[in-house]
């Protein structure tokens, strides 16, 4: 945490929201931003927080470096989340009194919005649940044991005495549901389910949200997913599974980047796997890699940090420079090293060969 900025949580990661209540009370103009390639936790948290602030009479804009993916646009029916350089201009960021960053603590993940933040005199606030972080010069409200930033936004609403409406409830429920794999990941707790229940009471409809998230795919997506599953490989004596997608396959199939959301989790469905990753080539030839773990000893946040990425112990990501085969090779070697370390062995001591 930046020097001189007060801690807002105790050793058990219980957040003290009082400093943020004071910041909100003392200012009028807020800008909310999140990471590049936003997911449902990012957009859902932004929309949920915006509605809380607006209920308190504040002026709010949501400005992101990336456009909102089509598959989660339903979380933002008024299209309040705007992309910098299109609907949102630099002055929209620079005029803020307070800039709240949700679901990331990384300069790299903020990209172009982060560059403007460095020029701005606005007070910075971070609300996040990721372990990996940079010094953003912000007052941090973090709980790295929380399952989703959406949960933290709901807890903030309770601390401020704001009852969320149906739109915010839908956004926050989707944020939590997606970051927990629809409530099946180990981070799910009794508190998770309490919050989910309250959001349902506030108007969230789990069947409708699930249908929007997972039952609106295209034939192009199915074809792309089929290719990725067909080339899945295992390594480390079956403890590591991985697959890849090249940019040319998006072009050939007509699929889009959002169609690969959560595809890495399919690799963990192979019996015996403890870790997984998917490497996806981007149009600019960079390679986005998502890492996953199903065991505490395998810390994939540490793997991602080797490539200036980050995330959680069991779910993280990074962007590597191309060419594609080289990036895949680096990701594979890093994950193999981590898998062997997790079981107390070294790659050199175990004659493991990839299985196609």
Distance between the termini: 45 Å
Helix content: 25-40%
What is the radius of gyration computed over CA atoms, rounded to a whole number of angstroms?
20 Å
- Determine the CATH topology of the largest domain: inorganic pyrophosphatase (n-terminal core)
What's the quick description here?
This protein has about 350 residues and is an alpha/beta fold.
Give a written overview of the molecule.
By secondary structure, this protein is α/β, with parallel strands linked by helices. The chain folds into two domains: 18-213, inorganic pyrophosphatase (n-terminal core); 219-349, Diaminopimelate Epimerase, Chain A, domain 1, CATH 3.10.310. It has twelve helices and twelve strands. It has helices spanning 18-26, 40-55, 90-94, 107-119, 149-159, 166-179, 190-201, 206-214, 219-230, 247-253, 300-305, 324-342; strands spanning 29-33, 59-64, 81-83, 98-102, 123-128, 139-142, 233-235, 240-245, 275-281, 287-293, 310-311, 315-320. The strands form two sheets. It has a six-stranded parallel beta sheet, with helices on both faces. A six-stranded mixed beta sheet has the order 7-8-9-10-12-11, with helices on both faces.
């Amino acid at each position: 945490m930046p020097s001189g900025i007060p801690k807002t949580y105790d050793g058990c990661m219980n957040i003290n929201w009082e400093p943020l209540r004071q910041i909100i009370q003392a200012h009028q103009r807020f800008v909310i931003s999140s990471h590049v390639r936003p997911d449902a936790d990012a957009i859902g948290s932004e929309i949920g927080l915006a509605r809380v602030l607006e209920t308190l009479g504040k002026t709010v804009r949501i400005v992101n470096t990336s456009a909102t993916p089509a598959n989660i646009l339903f979380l933002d029916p008024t299209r309040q989340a705007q992309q910098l350089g299109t609907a949102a201009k630099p002055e929209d960021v620079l005029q803020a009194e307070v800039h709240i960053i949700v679901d990331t603590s990384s300069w790299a993940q903020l990209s172009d919005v982060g560059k403007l933040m460095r020029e701005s005199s606005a007070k910075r606030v971070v609300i996040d649940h990721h372990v990996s972080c940079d010094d953003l010069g912000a007052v941090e409200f973090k709980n790295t044991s929380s399952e989703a930033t959406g949960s933290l936004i709901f807890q903030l609403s309770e601390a401020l005495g704001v009852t969320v409406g149906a739109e915010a409830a839908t956004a926050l429920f989707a944020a939590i549901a997606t970051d927990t794999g629809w409530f099946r990941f180990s981070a799910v707790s009794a508190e998770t389910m309490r919050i989910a229940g309250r959001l349902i009471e506030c108007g969230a409809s789990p069947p409708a949200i699930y249908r929007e998230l997972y039952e609106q795919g295209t034939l192009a997506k199915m074809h792309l997913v089929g290719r990725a599953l067909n080339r899945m490989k295992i390594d480390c004596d079956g403890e590591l599974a991985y697959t890849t997608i090249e940019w040319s396959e998006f072009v050939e199939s007509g699929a889009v980047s959002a169609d690969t959301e959560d595809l890495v989790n399919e690799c963990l469905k192979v019996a015996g796997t403890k870790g997984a990753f998917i490497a996806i080539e981007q149009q600019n030839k960079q390679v986005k890699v998502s890492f996953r773990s199903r065991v505490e000893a395998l810390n994939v946040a540490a793997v991602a940090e080797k490539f200036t990425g980050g995330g959680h112990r069991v779910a993280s990501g990074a962007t590597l420079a191309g060419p594609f085969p080289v990036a895949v090779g680096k990701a594979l070697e890093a994950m193999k090293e981590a898998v062997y370390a997790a079981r107390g062995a070294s790659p050199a001591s175990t004659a493991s060969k990839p299985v196609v």
